[in-house]
Amino acid sequence: MDAGAWWVLLAGLAFAVPHVLLGFPPLRPRLAAMLGEQRFVAVFALLAAIGLAALALALARSGGGGAVPWGALPAVARGALVLLAVVGLVLAFAALRAYPRSPSALFRSRVSAPRGIEKISRHGFFVGFGAFAFAHTLLAREVAPALAFGVLGAVCAIGALFQDRKLRARHGEAWLEYARQTSVLPGFALLQGRTRLQPDDGLGAALARAAVATAVLAALHALWAFGSGAGFVALLGLGGLAVSIRRFRGAAGGGPSISRRPSPQPGPAPSAPADDPPGP
Predict the structure, then answer these.
(1) Which residues contact 153 (CB under 8 A, 6 or more apart)?
(2) What is d(CA 274, CA 178) in angstroms, rounded to the nearest whole number?
C-alpha cells in the first residue's frame, strides 16, 4: 500500500472505532442517560459525519492507493458481486423505509409482531448495506476504495450484533419473542418455518420501491464514484449531519426520551424460555 492508502485506512479507523465504542452496550446507556437520548444520538451522528468527511477527504487525496491484488477477477465472479451489491442495496432501502415501526426505532417503546421486510431480516439495513459494501470491497480495482468499503462493511456487521444486545436490554421478553420469529441472515427464519409471509405484509410493494431507489443510485454511479468513492462517502456523511441537526433541534425542543426500563408490553405468549438465544 502506498501513503494514500494508509491515510484512507487511518481515516476509516477514525470513523469506525468511535462509532463502534459509542454503540457498545456498557457505554451507550450511560452516555444516553447523562446526555439524554436525543442529544446522545445527535452527538453520535455528528461524530460519524466528521469521521466520514475525513474518510471522503482521504479517498479524494489518495490517488487510488495502487492496484488491488485481486483486480483480475473472472467476469462471472464480478457479475455475482454486482448482483450481491444490488440485492443488498434493495434490502437496505426497504429496511430503511420500514425503520419507524421497527423495534430499533429511536423512540419505539414497544415491540410489534414482525411484518414485511422484517420477516426477511430483522437487521435489513445492516445486512443489506454490509453486503453492498463488502461486494464493493472486492469489486474495487484500487486499494483505497477497497479499504473504505471494507471498513463500512465491518461497521455494519458489528452494528447488527450490538443491536441485538441493545434491544434485548431495552425490550426484554418482548424482544426475545420478536427475535425468535425473525433472523439476521436474510430468509433464514422463513426457511426454518419460524415465520410466514402474509398478503398484508406488503413486501412486494416495499421491494419494488426499494428497487427503484437502487436503480436511481446505480444511474448516478459515475457521480458518487468520483475520487475513488469519495463522493459516496461524502453523501453518507451529509446524511449523518442531517440526522445530527434534527436530533439537536429535537433535544432543544424537549422531544421525547426513552425509558431505560420500559414497562412490560402485551404480546403473544413466548414459545420458549426467556434465556433462549434468538435465531441467526
Answers:
(1) 130, 131, 133, 134, 137
(2) 12
Contact between 240 and 53 (Cβ < 8 Å): no
* Alpha-carbon span 193 to 191, nearest angstrom: 5
The amino acid present at 71, given as its one-letter code, is G
All three cell numbers of 198: 402474509
184 is written with which cell numbers? Answer: 439476521
Give the amino acid at 209: R
**Nearest one of 132, 135, 148, 117 to 51, comparing CA atoms:** 148
Per-residue pLDDT of 1-28, as tens digits, reads: 788 899 999 999 999 999 888 877 778 8
SS3 label, residue 31: helix
- The alpha carbon of 113 is separated from its chain's Cα centroid by a whole number of angstroms, namely 21
- 170 and 107 Cβ atoms separated by less than 8 Å: no
H helices of the chain, in order, are 3-23, 28-35, 37-62, 75-98, 124-139, 143-171, 173-180, 188-191, 203-219, 221-224, 226-252
CA 131 to chain centre: 10
- Give φ, ψ of 89 to 5 degrees: -70, -40
Q: What are the backbone dihedrals phi and psi of residue 115, each rounded to the nearest 5 degrees, phi first?
A: -145, 145
Cβ(146)–Cβ(8) under 8 Å? Answer: no
What is the distance between the alpha carbons of residues 250 and 256, in angstroms, rounded to a whole number?
8
Q: Would you say 176 and 274 are in contact if contact means Cβ atoms under 8 Å apart?
A: yes
- In this predicted model, what pLDDT tens digit does every residue of 85-143 receive, in sequence order? 999 999 999 999 898 888 887 667 788 889 999 999 999 999 999 999 999 999 999 99
Q: CB-based contacts of 262: which residues, under 8 Å, 6+ apart?
A: 109, 110, 170, 171, 172
